[in-house]
Amino acid sequence: MENLTNLDLMIDPSLKVSDDNNEEKFLNNPIVTVGPVTKQYLKAVKSYITDGNRFVFSDGASKVQVSVISDEIIRVRMAPQGTFLADFSYALQPYDHVITEVKFIENDLQYLISTPKVTCAITKADFLISFIDRDGFLMSSDAKPMHYEENVQFGGYYIYCSKTCQTTEDFYALGDKATEFNLRGKRMVLWNTDTYAFAKNQDPLYRSIPFYLSLNKGYCYGIFHDNTFKTHYDFAVESMDCTSFWSDGGELNYYYIHGPQMVDVVRRYSMLTGTHQMPPMWALGFHQCRWSYYPDKKVKQVANTFREKKIPCDAIYLDIDYMNGYRCFTWNERYFPDPKNLLSELNDIGFKTVVIIDPGIKVDENYWVFKEGKANNYFCRRCDDYFMEGNVWPGRCQFPDFTNPKVREWWGGLFQGLLDAGVDGVWNDMNEPAVFGSGSFPDDVRHNFDHHRGSHRKAHNVYGMQMVRATYEGLQKLQKNKRPFTITRAGYSGVQRYSSVWTGDNVATWEHLKLANVMCQRLSISGISFCGTDIGGFTGEPDGELFTRWIQLGVFTPLMRAHSAGDTREREPWSFGEPFESICRKFIELRYKLLPYLYSAFWQHYKYHLPVLRPVVMLEPNEHINHFREDEFSFGDSILVCPVLQPGVANRKVYLPKGTWYDYWTNHKYKGGKEFVISTPLDSMPIFVKGGASIPEYPVMQHVNEFELESVTLKTWFSEMEEKSIIYEDHGENFAYKLDIYLEKTITVRGTNGSFVMEQTMHGMYTPRYEKYEHIVYGLPFKVKKVIVDGKEIKKYSFDTTNVLSFTTTKQFKKIEILA
Ligand code: GLC
Questions:
Q1: Cβ-contact 588, 620 below 8 angstroms
Q2: Which ligand 1 atom is the nearest neighbour of the CA of 565?
Q3: Residue 39 C-alpha to ligand 1 middle, in angstroms?
Q4: Could you tell me the pTM of the whole model?
Q5: Phi, psi values for residue 287, rounded to 5°
Q6: Does the C-beta of 350 come closer than 6 Å to ligand 1?
Q7: Residues noted as catalytic
Q8: Is 194 in the pocket of ligand 1 (CB under 6 A)?
Q9: Using one digit for the tens of pLDDT, what is the confidence trace for 267-310?
Q10: Biggest CA pair distance of the chain
């Protein structure tokens, strides 16, 4: 076996990145003999070289690079003709991954690359790659050697990877698919597509998240295939014992992400591709949207009605009709003669305004945005240099190339005028990109791709993400220390660093309510926690019951926005009259009470990479039946919900994972590990709190910061086991948290049949303005005789007949002892 030592020998020097548009960056791979185009499989390994934590194996023609990224993440790349492509990714973020130790062993049959957590084995005879947990469990193994096929028409290769699939193995994630939560038995495609009124099982949809999870006998791993070309997945369809993924170009370039816990795979994927930033607190309130609220009087009337009817709301949206002929960054002067005044009036009653901005820029020589884009050569062009023109809302449009850093910089600056008018957030839509008639751009459109030039085949799936990145970065720059709020329809892995997302143009049906639940859970475990659906359904007409049930689910989706198409009847929380209006109010109020809890869950996402929504299968992956549960999910650490997804049902089955749970409404105690039938009158939905949880609640406000808080209610549920809850607080609107100006509190509780102790530790440099906690403790199994706070007995407490204990302490308490 030949052992080369210099890795550079294997990489073509011409691959260096250059800014010069005329310089070739990718050499065509030499085709020495011309034969029929067929799939080529890797053959026996002939040589390898090692370079620190990178290993390159060759079968004489193709090369495979295996690199250890962390103890749990191993990257695999394949170069069909031995030349790796320039190493560039829009998905990855810089991150200090930990590598403890890497061992390399060669035996007669295999090469073994091991970290303390996982071993990657490469067979010599047939170049099959597998991953083995440290306890010997075979996590994943190639069913066939990696393979490729020359794409004669476009250049480059179709690249393929096939892994064996066990009978007990199931699959999850992949972004926003409108299908069952468990993906086994599905074929899916990633190609961002504008799918108005999409149907169940319609595919592809708006986003491309090439990350899936495999779960087999409680062992979980993930594959993140960082390839932006059209990508395909087959989860045991073509063959029951095989799963495959393949792309129409680019490099076979995947990250094996080890668990074995499912939640850890998702956490590690977020370490690779990033998390959401902390959202401004108001963005977690209720948002009201409509295509479109206009003129200004209508906007004011809707906002005022929220206040009159005392239904909390923080944001109102302006859809395309606020613009002059749908020209981005302009106002329709007839409908909105004085935007600054309007937005300031809205602001006075506690409303933030979010405006839509689409990528299509109207071809109009008198329109400043078009003129600037044209003068600077910022618009996309076809292969023969014609501009990429297509019809969208404004008519004939050209489209900025958001994959060009200069274009992103320019675009970011365009928001100054909207900010001056008082705009608080930006909604990026139609960025798949959508073009009327043809669907999207043709493949031959050229893109800068951050100086790694490519056609639309390569840039299509990242176009929307780069658009919202430009928007986010621009807002961040212009707003200085204020957190931007953005929402996008299209995206690629890593889009979460720049935006929240919604699931696009859904339909007002019960089937779509079910899909909304599944899609948000799926997005959350695909790295996109800040997600929501058009509450009520975008197209079609919900009745009061469907709308109300959707509001209930919406309380527990990280983004809570009601939206509807222009050709539907009015769709505000009061539109269906009573009893729906009161029930919607009750649930939107619940959302506002839970804001500090949701905010803490976001912190745990940002800081500890935990998804905000966690499906039951993630909570209990060892139970095979849970592989198929998709209705119940955990919202943050401690609340389990199960939305009602059918009309007219008086009750529904809810599975509670093992452990103690309390009904949020009645405090009835349940021993989990089985299904229960829970009554579901329209003014209720199944909500359960984990025993031992401490949940902070705000008083009901009509909008975030409506008034200064005097106290926070801390609700705690008894547990015999030691349990911890994290509560996070900060300024709410700025980036001080990045400089450690925040407060992270841990409440630890444990109980016996005669005592319950709550301890609080804090770290960080933020001091909240309120002074007190109003404590409510539920589920105590004894009659309370004494309450001792930091060593001193307090006399003022109440203990009612239902064993609910209430008392007040300062926010700094360290230890509370509740004794029988
Ligand atoms: C698209 C969006 C929708 C929006 C409409 C008009 O259909 O998905 O949310 O209201 O365009 O801008």
A1: no
A2: 10
A3: 42
A4: 0.96
A5: -115, 135
A6: no
A7: 429, 432, 505
A8: no
A9: 999 999 999 999 999 999 999 999 999 999 999 999 999 999 99
A10: 92
